[in-house]
Amino acid sequence: MIIAERKDLARLIGMLEGRRSILVAGCRSCVAVCQAGGEREVAALAEALRLHAAAGGLERSIETVTVERQCEKEWTREVAPMVEGKDAILSLACGVGVQVMQETFPDVQALPGLNTSNMGAPVEQGVYEERCGGCGDCVLHLTGGICPVARCSKSLLNGPCGGSQGGRCEIDPETPCAWDMIYRSLLRLGHAELLEVNIPPKDWTPSGHGGPRRIVRKRAVLEDEET
Amino acid sequence: MTAHRSNLHRVLDSGRFAVTAEIGPPRSASGDAVRQRARLLKGSADAFNLTDNQTAIVRLSSVASAALCIQEGVEPVVQMTCRDRNRIALQSDLLGAAALGVRNVLCLSGDHPRFGNQREAKSVYDIDPVQELTVFRQMRDEGKVWGGDALDEAPNVYLGAVANPFADPFDLRVVRLAKKVAAGAEFVQTQAVFDLDRFERFMEHVQDKRLDERVHILAGVIPLRSAKAAIYMKNKVSGMSVPDEVVERMKNASEPKKEGVRICLETIEHLRTIKGVHGIHIMAIGWEDIVPEVVERAGLSPRP
């Protein structure tokens, strides 16, 4: 899932300066699971913004809505009546959701309420960790199911640097060394031989360095007569 | 008979015990400091490493520093990290270095920007050091850039890599070294040795894989200046092993600098007895003027 966290209230207040009618829009998908932009967070933020407006004597209306998935127009279109008459949408979705809201409602500015961080997973209640770098050419079959692109601080593909100690990455004792984990996983899986394979320079074009990515699934594309 | 690419190559292939030493480029647009050090150290080692923005702190570039060394008649080893340059820039700088007369290049990942003075920098890591060796070897041996286009002239460089016997997982250290050798490393400089027991275990693994027959290993040494430096390396530098005994000796020394040199000399003496160690690499960080004394007293002077 996509992991995000809310921007500081002060930054959001600055972003909203001059806006009189705001729709705070949450998303029930990833950002609800990581407790950054679900219904509860939308309500809490709206309340904080109302208090701030009241304290400053601002004429400002703040309404809320939470969309099933802000990354799909099928869902964002449904909130059109709520968007009507607003001069800003403060989206508590990931960066994808903010953009789809903007595409759905091109005449009302969609503002980002969250900082989108990574593709990750909850590892314990309230703790989310990055897992995938979205490189477009998965190597997990070579690395014991642990991604060196996203989880090694240097994205090294051929083993640990000289800063791995006691299973920890040199950059921070809280960060596990991905290659230490890869090593243990491959031993456990009985594939230590993979540690000896030289992985050649990676093609980064599918990772976004070949320009913005677009995938066309032909069988899913509707023909003219079907639309 | 192999034509030697560099003096370091010649010394190592001759079977003589090699000496390299490090010169840290200054935080300056003036090359005077590099020139002064090169003059000071000339003749005390076979080649000198120019570090590449070590600890992710901006300094005079390693290639430019190497060119200054060449002007002073001193052979450089250019360190090229994967941290700041993608494959295009690394290949271009290799050509540039070779055009300036550089004949030794050391491939390494580089210290993470987290340790530097501009932590918000984006690190590159387009390729890793094993891949850097692969790319550079192709350029040299096949006269082609990684993409396949031919070079008018190939860079004639002696390729090196680093190894850290003191980092974890221990068993993976020799595996990684083997990958670097397979990718083209002809000489290897190690992290500084204080923990001789662990280093000897590492070298046993190296011999088990007969890597010592395929690559020249230069063991790193650091002459300690103070107990504080020893404690710092022991506790703060990931992937360093400094035994308590070394720290105690430095703490109890009435003249810590002299004790540091003594420890360094004892370490070198021991290293020379280990099969597969073909030289030493002296990293006298910020204390380069001690290098001639260390080399002299270790009985490694004059250099061939």
Structural commentary:
The complex is a heterodimer of chains A (227) and B (304). By secondary structure, chain A is of the alpha/beta class. Chain A folds into two domains: 116 residues, Rossmann fold, CATH 3.40.50; 94 residues, no CATH class. In chain A, 27% of the residues lie in helices and 19% in strands. Chain A contains eight helices and seven strands. Chain A has a four-stranded parallel β-sheet with strand order 3-2-4-5, with helices on both faces. The radius of gyration of chain A is 22 Å and the shape is globular. Chain B is of the alpha/beta class and 304 residues long. Helix content of chain B is 40%, strand content 15%. Chain B is built from eleven helices and eight strands. In chain B, strands 1-2-3-4-5-6-7-8 form an eight-stranded parallel beta barrel, surrounded by seven helices. In chain B, strand 6, helix 7 and strand 7 form a beta-alpha-beta unit. The two termini of chain B are 19 Å apart. The mean pLDDT of chain B is 97. Chains A and B meet through helix 8 of A and helix 5 and helix 6 of B.
Compile the SSE list and pairings.
The complex is a heterodimer of chains A (227) and B (304).
Chain A: E1 2-6, H1 9-15, E2 21-27, H2 30-33, H3 39-55, E3 61-67, H4 73-76, H5 80-83, E4 88-91, H6 95-104, E5 110-112, E6 114-124, E7 127-132, H7 148-151, H8 178-188
Parallel strand pairs in A: 2-3, 2-4, 4-5
Antiparallel strand pairs in A: 1-6, 6-7
Chain B: H1 7-13, E1 18-23, H2 32-41, E2 47-50, H3 62-71, E3 76-81, H4 87-99, E4 104-108, H5 129-142, E5 158-163, H6 170-183, E6 187-192, H7 196-208, E7 216-221, H8 227-236, H9 244-252, H10 256-271, E8 277-282, H11 291-297
Parallel strand pairs in B: 1-2, 1-8, 2-3, 3-4, 4-5, 5-6, 6-7, 7-8
